[in-house]
Each structure stands twice: as C-alpha cells, then as structure tokens.
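User: Could you walk me through two proteins back to back? I'd like the raw sequence and the structure tokens for each, with a short line separating them so I can tell where one ends and the next begins.

Assistant: Of course. Protein one, sequence then structure:
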Amino acid sequence: MDHRSARTAQSTDGCPVAHAADGFDPFGDDYQQNPAAALAAARAHEPVFHSPELDYWVVTRYADIKEAFRNTRDYSASLALDPITPLAPQARERLDSYGFAPGPVLVNEDEPLHMRRRKQLAPPLAAAEVALLENRIRALVTRYIDAFADRGRADLVDDLLWEVPAIVGLLVMGVPDEDIETARHYTIKMGLFTWGRPSVEHQVETADQVGRWWRLSGELVERLKREPGRGWMPHAIEVHRRDPELVDDNHLQNMMMSGLVAAHETTTNATANALRYLLADRESWQALCEDPALVPNAVEECLRYAPSVLCWRRRALKDVVLGGTTVPAGGRLLLMTASGNHDERVFPDPGRLDIRRANAKRHLTFGAGAHSCIGAPLARLEMRIILEELTRRLPDMGLLPGQTFSYLPNASFHGPRHVLAQWPVPAPSGPAPAPSRSPAHREADVPRPTTRPVPTEESP
C-alpha cells in the first residue's frame, strides 16, 4: 500500500492507518537526536498522519502548522498544557494536597478571552521594555563566565545556561531580589512531566515540586500586592485591580507559577542547542567571533535549525482538512514545529546551519498568530547576550572531543543535558587586577546560585 492509499485505509477505531505512524516514536533515540530528519519522509509523502499510539494527528509541513496556529476559529489551544501522558491518581492526589488549582493562562485559552487578556498583560514583555534589562542581564552573564573562564573547561549547561535564564525570568516577573534565592530553587524541569512518559514515581515527585511552587507563587503574589514594584507580575496586579473579572486571583497565581517555567527551561534548551551546533561548526563560530553583528541572525538560525520546543498542540473544533487529510472534530493535533522549520518549501537546504540565512526569522519556534510566544523578545535578548559574551571572552572555545549528547525523552522540550567545552588558558604572569564594579554589575547583585543537580532519566 503506498502513501496515497494509506489515507483511506481505516483502523478498527475508524482512524486512517498511516505508514508514517509506523516509525513515529517521539520518545525514541532517532527522534531525540534529529527530530526533523525523523519526520522527513512524512513531510514528503504524508504531511498529516494519525498516530494510533498517541491518538494525535501529526502535522509536519510549515504551511499546515502555520494555518493551525493562525486559525483560532477552527483550532483550540485549550489542551496546550495537558500532560501528553495522563497523570496517575497518585500524582493528582499529591497536587490536590497543595490546593493546586490550575486555570487557563495565555498559552492555553481561546478567543475572545485570550486576546483581551493578552492586550492587557503583554506590555512589560514588549521588545522595547525587555531591552531595558540588557545591562543587568549582561552583567549577570559576565559573572557566571568569570567563575569558569580561567578553568579552561566547563559544562555550559550546568555552569551557565541552567541558572541564568531562571534568574532573569524571576527578575522580569518582578520577584524582589531578596526572594530570588528562594524562588530559584523551585525552577522545575517540566518537559518530561508534560511531554514524556514519566514513571508514576517521577509524576509524584514532580507533582510535589509543582505543589510547593504553587504555594510559594501565591505567597509572592500577595507580597507584590502589598509592595508594588516593576515587572510582569506587578503590572498584572495593576490589571487585576482595574478589572478583577478579567484577571482574578487564581489567574495571578497561575501566571506566577507558569511564567518562570516558560521563561526558564525553553531558553536554557535553546541556547544549549545553539552552542552545541555552533561550536561544532568552526567556520560559523569564528565568523561570530570576528563579527558580532552576525549574532542576531545566528540566534534566529539556531532557533530554526535546533529549536527548544519541537511541537505544540491544538484541538480541531470541527472537521477540518489539513494537508489534504480530514481531521475529525475533536481530533488532537501535534504541530511539529521542528519539522516545519526544516520544510524545503520555505528554507532551502534546511539541514545546513547557515548563520547568514536570509529568511531564518520565518521559523515557527515561537509559534504564529495570536498565540505567538509573548516571551520571544526576552529569549532572543538572552541568547544574543550569551553568544556575544562567549565569542568575545572565549573565542578559542570548542567542544570537548568524544562527548555524546543526551536528552530527556519527551516529545517537545528539547535540549542537551550537558555541553562540555574546553579552551586554552594562558599561564598566569602575575596577580590579576581586581575587576571593576560598574553600576550595571552592582545592579545585578542577586544571590549566586549553586550548580543544579545532574538530572537522571526520571528526575525533573
């Protein structure tokens, strides 16, 4: 049976049987190592197919993915944060013990409520506002690089990329400096929990972390109500005071809890992916070292080539035709943005990392349409600063030979657990001068975090 007849064949549950589904395993090693290549045959022959194992319709081409993102009449975002593996009763009980009350936030709510809230809540995350934090973020990145620059080697994830986005996320949200050290301990790796097949034990462990972060989020919201400041949450509290029906107390608590997760893990993974591939491409790395003006477009190309979010989800609100395939009303869709980013119809020679690619910014990594990622300006700024500082400070950096790159097995959140790098360190010729302390450095004096634990296959 060829790919054309596969669309009309029916399984016992009434869904079409697709050849592409036979090899589709979003938890397997082939997908983890190269998700775009794992879906190349589907892009060519079965751009939309049903996965009986997941009970999702898998969408692989750029145009179809963009249509599902933009068409809010026919596609719902309501399931965007649901665990792809249903929670075990033990995990639900643990969440209930903390009074966890999840509600819709911007990423998983539909129109017209979504756009009403977005217009009111988005201003603090606009590019012009985020740009005001550049000196503070750069000072923070500098302090972390200072801690390992003289060692000649580092795990760029453990030594830099895990902690910086967490601290920046808390700063942007408006968490007071004195609470950052406490709050940063509640950063949670949600990729395996939401997008993987975690064991019951892991679900319960993560549910406990979610519950504790839920409680602290409520405490932080109440503190910010009493002590106004600057940032996304203080702004949301002002919206709450003006229109408590639009943004109620539960929404504020959910914003505080989900905001850090959104700002943290995805940026960590995106930057780790970028450094893995740029350091492996010496010509590109050298070009960035010689011409920092290339960095912004290199960020976009890395977001296209190796995104930190491989797919997102929608639900069909009625029977729809997508990629020549009919998806029934209620059908759940996996929008494979990593595959769309490698669609030859949009990006010539998509398997080549090209830091000068003219249309790199057309990638789907931040979504499209009304639900495009509200935190994209912040992620771009952090990635740009980190690349600028590493290429400036450590131009001879390279990957440690012989290392392998491993990933927590899940369908979407994607980044290497470790990126081991090395560089030559000149022999000391005398006492080093004390570093200058600019106002920007003093402004960034938040508590110095300790290195995160190394995650295991089942750890958060």
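----
Protein two, same layout:
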Amino acid sequence: MTAFQENNESLSRNEFLATELLKIVNSLPGFFPLKNELQEKLDNLRSVLQGLRPPRVMVIGRTRCGKSSLINAICGLRVAKVSDTKPETGMAEWKNYYHDGSDLLHILDTRGLQESIAPRQYDSAKTPYESIMQAVKKECPDVILFLCKAEDVHAASDKDLDECELIVGEIKKLYRRDLPVIGVLTQCDKLAPSRVPLPTDNERKNRNIQEQVQSFFAFLREREGLRGHVKEVVPTGGDAKYEDGKNGLILPDEDYRWNITELVGTMIKHTPREIRGSLARMALITKFQLTVARTVVTACTALCGFVSINPIPGAAIPLVASIQTFMVMYIGWLSGREFSDQPVKDFVVNAGIGVGVNVGMIGIADIGLKFVPGLGSLLAVGAGAIATKGLGDAAIAYFLTLPEARNTTF
C-alpha cells in the first residue's frame, strides 16, 4: 500500500470515528450540558476531514479581463499562461496546480466570454458556454469568480451576465448546489488617475473604484438567477512579474498585486466550510491559516474533554488519541505540508522538549504513527482537554507562527 493510500484510509477511519462520536452525542438527552455545542463542533470537525482536498475555483469572464493573471496572483506563482495580445485559454479544463509536491488548487480556467477571435489553444466546443459546461460536468466547482475589468463595468456587460446566469443555473440543476458567486473587478489600477499606483490615499481613485464596485454589484443582483448566489464584489489588481520557468515565484521588486488577500478572505468567508481550510492552505496567508487552525483546536479540545469525562466504553483512549493526532496533522497540512505522519514526527522531534514540559506526549492514534518509537503513552484521561489545547497551541506555534513557517512562500 502506498503512503497516499494509507493517508486516505487514515482520513476515512478518522471521519468514521467523528461520525460515531456524533451518533453518541445525538443520542444523549436534550438536557445534557453542551449537547448542541458538541454537535456543532463535531459537524465542523467532520467537515474538516471531508475537506482535505484542494479547492475547486471556476474563473469566468470576458476575453482579456485578466483571468490567468488573477490565478497567478492568487497562487503567488506563475501557474497559468498569460498572453499580452491574443486570447490564450482554449478548452475549458480543470487544471491541478502543484508546488513542491503539494496539490494546491484546482482551477477551471475558461475561454473568455464574447471572444472575437479563436483562442490560441485548441477547443472542440463551438462556444465558450459549451466548453465551460463540458468541464463542469466532470467536476463541480466550490466557488465561481466572475471577472470584469474595472473599466468595462458599463460596457456591454449584459451579455456576460446572460452567460453567467445560464452557467449558474445549469450547475444548480446538475449538482443541486447553490454555489457562491464572487464578483471580481480586475485591473483597478487603470482607473483614473491611472498613474496613481494602488494602494493609495488618492480620493478620486478610491472613489472611482468604489463606484465601479457598487455598479457591478448592482448589475449582478438585478439578475433573478444570480441574486441568491452573488455575495460580494472585490476590487483587485493582479499585475506582477515572475521568475522564468514553470511555477516561477513572484519577483519581490515586481509585485504590484493589490487586494488579493481580501479576495481570498472573501472566498474563504463564502465558500462551503469544508473547503475553507484548503483555501487558507493554498493562499498561505497566515491570518486565515491561524483562524482555521484555532477553530480546529477549539473543536478538538472540547471533544477530547467530552470523551475524557463521559464514559464511552472502549472508546475514550483511541478517540482522544485520534483527535489529538489528527489535530496536529491538520495544522501541519494547513502550513503547506502533506497530510501524513511526517509533519507530526518533525513536530515531536523538533518541539519535543516544549511539548514534553507543557503538555506531555502525543497519544498515538491509527494515523500512520505506529512505527514511531517511544510515543505510545497517553496523557491522563482527566486532563485530556487541557493537554489537547496545549498541544494545539504548540502545533500552531511550530507550523504557523515561527519565522521559518512565516517565510514559507509559494
């Protein structure tokens, strides 16, 4: 069995444990203290387990609106081909983007709406709509980014809205999902006065940006088929220069991106909760990673305390061990590492003194750590919640807030 298969089996086992614990909590009488809170935290934890896959983002918009540039800006590296003069993207297809072996993001990069010439890349579909729907039938997106150049909000946008409304409606029929749609204004730096770079205190430029944001949002919300899906409109600037070669990193002195962090935060805010951790991991934005990590630590702390205090015959020790180990693995995964035993081993070895003094050793669950010697002793069951909180805080410090973690970039 490969390491990948072992990890998948481990995820399945832990999801099963969370589900079984949820059944036990559901069977408790209604007057049981904190029953509703425990149910919510278990639901959150199970969603986290289900969400250990890269997010799927569909990017649509008019030709030359900056779709590929935005993808690069979000990922922080050159992952999509960008052409200065002709439409580049041909057949709409799901593309998996990797860095250092990590599967970061699945992007549906699509042909531009209202294209006047054929794209450079071949596509058997006759229209952009047909091309997009062929790809959507293979996989359902988690979120739709509908792009519009800031200067084009009032320029024949009705046709673009027609296409977006049709696509959203077809996805709802196919998957019975009400996908969030986030409007994205691109190339906001070109709004007058165009020579003023972003961010800026220039009142005229900021006023022009806000007026275009409000107009675009109003146009989106006017459509009956989009009204319940459109969440926000985010203004952005995606210009940047990258190192040569595939997956070249942004050159620090040529990074002119603006408001990309806010866009990612909006995506995290409005997408299904089970993929929010994937988005935070993909963007490697510490603020969002810490938010997701602390949510997981809080949930795991409450669950371990519940399991430790309440007698569940034959289940307490393996459940506490499993929850603790999953928590550390998940925080390591949030930082960009693989969801495997190796980050946990690194954590134990490199932070072993701090962990030993402050919270004790990790209880070994069934997630691939059985071959690590000397880590089999559990904390006292009665101290499960305190130990889990301390362990989670130590993992956050090690993986996310140490200088080495903060300096990791994609």
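The first strand starts at residue 56 and ends at 61.

Let me know if you want the two compared in more detail.
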